[in-house]
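Fold this complex.
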Amino acid sequence: MKIDLSFSQGQLDEMQLRDKNVVVIDVLRSSTSIIAALQNGAREVIPVGSIESAVKISGSLFGDVTLRGGERNGKMIQGFNLGNSPLEYSEAMVRGKSIIFCTTNGSVAMVKSRYARLLAVGAFVNLSAVVDLIKSLNSDILLLCAGRPAQAGGFSLEDAVCAGMIIQRLTQEKSLSIQLSDASLAAQSLTKSFGRSILKMLKNTDHGKYLIEIGFQKDIKVCAEVDSMPILPMMIGTSIRLRKDGTASVDKNAATPVA
Ligand code: MLT
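Structure:
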């Protein structure tokens, strides 16, 4: 099994991701918010690449069961019901709801991965569930860090450290035969340097500092808690959901994961 990694999505397009097994990682905060939404009973999260798409899609759905969530510059988009804080995706807010989800990097990476063979959503909060998925898949995988916009350099330390931690766990599995790309080796080394205190690392990243500055200090703590939400959101058709049986196993021959 080859584990490849992309530190940002900027250079990638849908065709390059087609037919790959992909885990999209956006620790701060898209992946964590999606995981929180599904953990709290949301029916599905539908990632979109632009505010225009969010408005168009939600217009054709029933208002009382559909919410619009997402951010620009970390803050709720005007006219939306929810921002991108995992704390907003509470059970009272999201149970039974479909959420149209639009963020700067995370949802864009998920949309780009829509023709992937398999797409899972990963973060620190569901780290072991992602590791279990990759173990059971035992097939080539791409860890796609959502990263930052190209003008901000594309790279985000928190996504790279999370990806490196997944790799670290996998390389400890004696039963797996693993090949690491250069980027995977680099991420693993970042995890050795910065993974000891995830909370401290998150607080010191560019985006972490920005989130604290705009009042989302509490989100950092939620996003730092390893395995606090042990579920595995996966793209099924055009929406991200939980498998009905709650397991992380996949049908390796299926074009999309079995619902
Ligand atoms: C993104 O998709 O760029 C992020 O999740 C931004 C945020 O923290 O809201």
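The first helix runs from residue 14 to 17.
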